[in-house]
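Reopening this ticket.

The earlier resolution said the output was attached, but the attachment link was broken on my side. Pasting everything inline this time so it's all in one place.
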Amino acid sequence: MPAIADDEVLVRVEAAGVDRGTWHLLTGQPYVVRVAIGLRRPRVTVLGRDVAGTVAATGSALRQLRVGDSVFGVATGSFAEYAKAKEQQLARTPDALSAVEATVLGISGMTALQAADAAQVTDGSGLLIIGGSGGVGSYAVQIARGRGARAALVAVRRPAAHLHRQPGAPVRSGTASSSRRRGHRKPAVDTVYPLAQAAEAVQNLVAGHTQGKVAVVVHDPPAQ
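Inline output:
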């Protein structure tokens, strides 16, 4: 079990998200990433960043989170039964989201939100999203629609079924479609794997066999 500092949280992991960053950390490629993660060997030996679970312990300096809180966000080594995280990198999980849905929000969701903010997407904006059926892209589509923008998106592999289920116009493989409708935004989860199949989850993601997000289930949620 990881030791935590005064400003850290120990999370009992229920689910962990899988993204391309996991593959970069696993393989050390492209080689430039080794400057950040370790030249000869990784500084962090347990994979996984996106996390959702329950607070199991807190450092003495924490002010917001308490033991027993359901949380999601970004942690260190979430492909494990327990992971540690900074308090400011976690938030309480909304009641409307399961652990699997919450765990795929952190990195991809924040990336999409930062891109939308940088592009100053507002009501009436028009934008083209390449890879609109992918992890970051699916969030970018929903954020744009939620802000009242006209979002034209491209999905090059096959029709994105999870985007058909979202508010707005359908998406056709290899083409762009547009929409302008406000609606409820929810994570698009493509596939869920048990922790024992985490390697397969990473392989399928990198091979392009998934649309939307991929999650790994570690623990069942605590009984209510």
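Reporter confirms the inline version is readable. Confidence is low (pLDDT under 50) at residues 159-183. The chain has two domains: 8-105+191-217, 108-177.
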